[in-house]
Amino acid sequence: MSTTASTTTGTLRPPLGSPMVQITGLHKEFGSLHILKGIDLTVSTGEVCVLLGPSGSGKSTLLRCVNQLETFQAGEIRVGGERVGFAEHPLPDGRLARLTEKQIAAQRARVGMVFQRFNLFPHMTALQNVMEAPIHVGKVPTAQARARATELLERVGMADRATHYPSELSGGQQQRVAIARAMAMDPELMLFDEPTSALDPELVGEVLNVIKDLARSGMTMLVVTHELGFAREVADQVVFMADGVVVEAGAPAQVIDHPSSPRLADFLNSVL
Q1: Whether the Cβ atoms of residue 210 and residue 196 lie closer than 8 Å to each other
Q2: Which of 50, 78, 269, 71 lies closest to 188, judged by CA?
Q3: How far is residue 237 CA from its own chain's centroid?
Q4: Using CA atoms, how far apart are residues 220 and 189, in angstroms rounded to an integer?
Q5: Which residues does 197 contact at the CB level (< 8 Å), separation at least 6?
């Protein structure tokens, strides 16, 4: 059995079962607001981790820290064994040097992120949206980027809408294009920040089906969602956050069906 998994760009991912995401003692503050209060979390390669919790619990902030869209005040994040945002070895005075913007961009390129709002470029077709990052960030030749984008649109069921602009697509279709775009850089890790919360109820299923397909393919994922049925079916690990801390974590059957904390039980009752 192979101990590593390779991406289409030739880089090697950690072996299945080894940590893809390691978060230790993470603290994030916005002024006087202490949003994350010492988060510890490990997500193994090939694992789907679903984050549950009420609004304001820090779930989205946690994802943004992983993808370096937010800086954090204390703690450590590693993706694929590499320290995120800072040099591996301390300076002589013990401080960790912040990476350059170019180095941070290279780390961020290994992580795909899908937001609540689709954030597609309105002046570009679906195909052009998916091709954009590989061409301008990855320096992939146009023909190769087009072939890969076409393949990804096919995978998310959007091949017949490749020449359509975002304004010509439903919310569910736009989100599926956004997922294809996030996959275009062949990420090691996918982050989903409430990917169905902006969709009409009848469109939720089509987006969740795409995410389920990614899970079946072995993609490592961190997913913020309130979709309990999805969490039960797809998650390897469910983490319940409240007030900036991890209250409970474990397998879906344990966390969702047999909550041990009153805070989680109240949350599940409110969602159901």
Answers
A1: no
A2: 78
A3: 14
A4: 5
A5: 116, 225, 226
Q: How far apart are the first and last CA of the chain?
A: 42
255 within 8 A of 51, measured Cβ to Cβ = no
- Asked if residue 239 lies in contact with residue 256, where contact means CB atoms within 8 angstroms, the answer is no
Name residue 133's amino acid: A
Distances (CA, A) of 75 to 58, 188, 199, 220: 15, 22, 35, 22
Query: pLDDT for 29-44, tens place per residue?
Result: 999 999 999 999 999 9
Reported as a single tens digit per residue, the pLDDT across 63-76 is 999 999 999 999 99
Element (DSSP H or E) covering residue 214 = helix 201-216
Residue ranges, the chain, pLDDT below 50: 1-12
CA-wise closest residue to 220 among 247, 186, 176, 174: 186
Q: How far is CA 86 from CA 104, 196, 198, 206, 231, in A?
A: 9, 33, 34, 38, 33
DSSP state of 92: T
Residue 244 phi, psi (nearest 5): 80, 10
Q: What amino acid is encoded at 249 in this protein? A: A
